[in-house]
Specification:
The complex is a heterodimer.
Chain A (H helix, E strand, L loop, with lengths): L2 H4 L17 E9 L6 H7 L5 H10 L17 H13 E9 L6 E5 L2 E2 L9
Antiparallel strand pairs in A: 1-2, 2-3, 3-4
Chain B lengths: L24 H19 L4 E5 L5 H10 L4 E6 L2 H13 L5 E4 L14 E6 L15 H6 L9 H4 L3 H4 E12 L4 H10 L3 E10 L2 E9 L6
Helix pairs in contact in B: 1-2
Classes of the chains: A alpha+beta, B alpha/beta.
Subunit structure (chain B): Heterodimer; heterodimerization with TRMT112 is required for S-adenosyl-L-methionine-binding.
GO molecular function (chain B): nucleic acid binding; protein-glutamine N-methyltransferase activity
Catalytic activity (chain B): methylarsonous acid + S-adenosyl-L-methionine = dimethylarsinate + S-adenosyl-L-homocysteine + 2 H(+); L-lysyl-[histone] + S-adenosyl-L-methionine = N(6)-methyl-L-lysyl-[histone] + S-adenosyl-L-homocysteine + H(+)
Chain lengths: 123, 218
Amino acid sequence: MKLITHNMLSSKTIKGVVYGYPLIIRASQVLTKDVDFNPEFIQRMIPKLDWSALKFAAKCVGHEEDLPDEPPANMADEDVLKRIHHVVMEVDVVDGFLECPETKRQFPITNGIPNMLLNENDV
Amino acid sequence: MSKIATPDISHLTAQDYESIYEPAEDSFLMLDALENELPLIMAMKPSLCVEVGPGSGVLITGLATALGPACSYIAADVNMKACMATVATAQKNACSVETFCSDLLSGCGRQLDGKVDVLIFNPPYVVTPPEEVAAGDLQHTWAGGRKGRQVLDRLMPEVPRLLTPQGRFYLLIERENDPEEINAIFRSMELFGKKILERKTGPEHLAIWVYTKLDRAL
């Protein structure tokens, strides 16, 4: 699970949960994988990212210092775009859990794939 | 003219196809339709393509190989084996697709709202008794219940809020699914549709439709 994906996952479907976002990452294995840097993609993706959730995710996996505090005002700054690319596209949570911030219910991440399925009792 | 090369799925075995859908006429019809649409898709400079129920991953992988790394690709399947097959198919074809296991897109809550440039859904469309829907991994892939619509009917209300203003929703519809009624439901949500490709294959009459918020964008 890349952090771009974490940015779009939520436990809001659980009965009684108000936001369910951002999910807490409890990682037991995190890899960084080389992904070709595509500045145009990062520029286009930034407006779709919830920045505070991204900061939170980066902190969960020990990459907080790689990210600016705010989305960049200058979209032409390639150095900043590269750092964002690294956090969003290259950091990969292979094993662990996502945790609902309200109910503490855990969703396993196995082979890099989060399992967001709920039981009938949860919804 | 841009093309979509049919993805290499030689890594998937007969055993895989006991629990995931083996690409068939409907899959290839969607690939052909996406290929025809590539100029329009490229023109909107998408950053996020999402597929619901990717199965083998052949569709989202085909799109990812054609559009390249200037976009992200995410797919959600209710079957973990399909999620794993999708990741493997993407890797086999030298691209990257993120997956998660979820009932439709429920694992996203509202976090995908207004972000999806391209949404693809090849639903379980075969008319079956209602109780056969979701009765097992393979039934998940084809059993559609009443009018073959029971799964699609649950996704439809979510589509307008997921799409970006230019976003395009590609949907496979079989004639038994009642395309007129599907269109009427989407129109009531201010989504406009057009049939872009159709094919008769045995007893089935399959079509690919595209829906957008702007009818002039069709």
